[in-house]
Structures are given as structure tokens and as C-alpha cells.
């Protein structure tokens, strides 16, 4: 296997002595799509900030491939509400040529909004704008913190499909956080269940049966996901229409920790 784009070894982050992330080992390679799930406050954002270098680690190491270009989509677009800013100008702040900016906007389905005021965009359009900004530098690694928040359910499925297509086009790695377990189970390659430490990780079809997963999310969630996963064999396009999905059902490949979970 080729060298990872990023490798975390025994990474822990503490705030004022309080652990947010504990002893995480993780490698992301080109072509991977990992989704981190876990309850509120589980350390998901802290972990991906450590991965991209925005958060210092208290313990362990984070190794990034030399010259690695990361496209980071933060949880929210932070823009001063009184500052007028249109989409084209926002993209130009990336320092990339206008043609590249336009192409990235078109690729995320909002090319027609080039002249729109950012404050007037819908939740879904904002998420696509953030994705376009992350794409414009043609990243080796896309890191997305809840990319589908504020997006309706059909839009979420379309966004996940788009992320998968971008992975193929750019041959990049993808690591993201999601709270929508149904969508994660239907559309992700590999899931990492985090509750400070990695409780369990593996392919969606397997992870919902993992005792560590059931410990974290409860039986009813696990059962509903198992059923959902069984029946959901399609995806939706940008308009919400059903499209076929590659029926690649990964082979069993789960890994989980062997200690009690609180
Ligand atoms: N800069 C910081 N200073 C102090 N505590 C912090 C800081 N950033 C995060 N924390 C704490 O670390 C813990 C993990 O936070 P984090 O945002 O990583 O969780 P999360 O899993 O992304 O949560 P959510 O699902 O609610 O977004 C929380 O208890 C949070 O209060």
C-alpha cells in the first residue's frame, strides 16, 4: 500500500487537563472515505482539527505527507454579518484564478450564484460554497466537519454523492464528520465511532452490530440502522430523484477496542 496522506499515532488532546481525544491511531490514504460519528462532545471536531494542524496535540504524533494540500470545510461559514461579500469575491480570497473559482462553483452546483450575496444563500448553498472553496486548490485530502448540516434529506444524499464523485475525480482521501447515521450507513466507505477514543471502526454493514457501537448509540438506533442499511439500495441526485448506487458491499472488516466504554 502507498504511504498515507496523514497518519495519527496515539494522538491525545486535553483541554485544561480534561481529555477531549484519547490515544487515537488513524491513517488516511488516497481513495479512502472515512466518516467520524459519535455523540456531542465526543471530540470529533477536535480530532479533525488536530489532523489538519489547527489544534496542537497533547500527546502522540500527526504526520502529513510532504506537500500535502488539504481542503478543509469547517463546521460553519464565519463571516461578519454586516460585511457585504458576494460569492465571486469570497472565492477570489482563495488566491486562485477566477476560472478555477468558477469551475469549483460549477462543480458543486452553484455556478449560477457567482454574483450572489453570501448572506442570502440558503443553508445548502452555503455548504456547497464551502465545499467549492475547499476544492479550488485541488486538495489531496478533503476534511469536512458536518458538510450536510442545514441541508434537507434529499440534498444530504446528493451532497454525499458529490463528495464521492470528487474523491474519484481528484483521487483524494476524504475524512468527514456526520451526525446523520442513516446517511452515513448508506453512503460511507468506512465509519469511525469516536467517544474520545475510537470505540469501533469498520464498514457500515458490520459496525451497527458491534457491541461498542450499541454501547454508544443504544440498541434501537443500531437496530434501525441495520434495517435501514438492508433496505436502502439507492441514492438521490441533486433534484431528489432516485439514482442507482454502486452496489459495492464491502467485505467484513471491523476492528474494535476491547475495553469498557462509558
Ligand atoms: N478550545 C477548546 N478549549 C476548551 N475545551 C474545548 C475546546 N475545544 C473543544 N473543547 C471541548 O472538548 C470536547 C470535545 O469537543 P468537540 O467540539 O471536539 O466535540 P464534537 O464531538 O465535535 O461535538 P459536537 O458533535 O457537539 O460538534 C468538548 O467537551 C468541548 O467543550
Automatic annotation (TrEMBL):
GO terms for molecular function: ATP binding; ATP hydrolysis activity. Residues 236-262 are annotated as: Disordered. Transmembrane segments: none annotated. Residues 236-248 have a biased composition (Basic and acidic residues). It comes from the Bacteria. The keyword Transport applies. Residues 6-221 form the ABC transporter domain. The keyword Cell membrane applies. Keywords: ATP-binding, Cell membrane, Ion transport, Membrane, Nucleotide-binding, Translocase, Transport, Zinc, Zinc transport. One of its GO terms (biological process) is zinc ion transport. This is High-affinity Zn transport protein (ABC superfamily, ATP binding). It comes from Marinobacter santoriniensis NKSG1.
Amino acid at each position: 500500500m502507498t504511504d498515507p496522506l496523514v497518519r495519527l499515532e496515539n494522538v491525545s488532546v486535553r483541554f485544561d487537563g480534561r481529555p477531549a481525544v484519547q490515544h487515537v491511531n488513524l491513517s488516511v490514504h488516497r481513495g479512502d472515505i472515512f466518516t467520524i460519528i459519535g455523540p456531542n462532545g465526543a471530540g470529533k471536531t477536535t480530532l479533525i482539527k488536530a489532523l489538519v494542524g489547527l489544534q496542537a496535540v497533547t500527546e502522540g504524533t500527526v504526520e502529513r505527507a510532504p506537500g500535502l494540500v488539504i481542503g478543509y470545510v469547517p463546521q460553519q461559514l464565519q463571516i461578519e454579518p454586516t460585511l457585504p461579500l458576494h460569492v465571486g469575491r469570497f472565492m477570489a480570497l482563495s488566491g486562485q484564478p477566477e476560472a478555477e473559482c468558477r469551475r469549483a462553483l460549477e462543480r458543486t452546483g452553484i455556478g449560477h450564484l457567482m454574483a450572489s450575496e453570501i448572506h442570502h444563500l440558503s443553508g445548502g448553498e452555503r455548504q456547497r460554497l464551502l465545499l467549492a472553496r475547499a476544492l479550488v486548490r485541488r486538495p489531496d485530502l478533503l476534511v469536512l466537519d458536518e458538510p450536510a448540516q442545514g441541508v434537507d434529506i434529499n440534498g444530504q444524499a446528493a451532497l454525499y454523492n458529490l463528495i464521492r464523485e470528487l474523491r474519484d475525480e481528484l483521487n483524494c482521501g476524504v475524512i468527514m464528520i456526520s451526525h446523520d447515521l442513516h446517511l452515513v450507513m448508506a453512503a460511507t466507505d468506512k465509519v469511525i465511532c469516536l467517544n474520545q477514543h475510537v470505540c469501533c471502526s469498520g464498514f457500515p454493514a458490520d459496525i451497527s452490530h458491534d457491541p461498542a457501537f450499541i454501547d454508544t448509540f443504544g440498541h434501537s438506533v443500531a437496530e434501525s440502522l441495520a434495517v435501514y442499511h438492508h433496505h436502502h439500495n439507492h441514492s438521490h441526485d441533486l433534484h431528489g430523484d432516485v439514482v442507482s448506487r454502486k452496489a459495492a458491499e464491502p467485505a467484513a472488516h471491523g476492528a474494535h477496542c476491547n475495553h469498557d466504554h462509558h
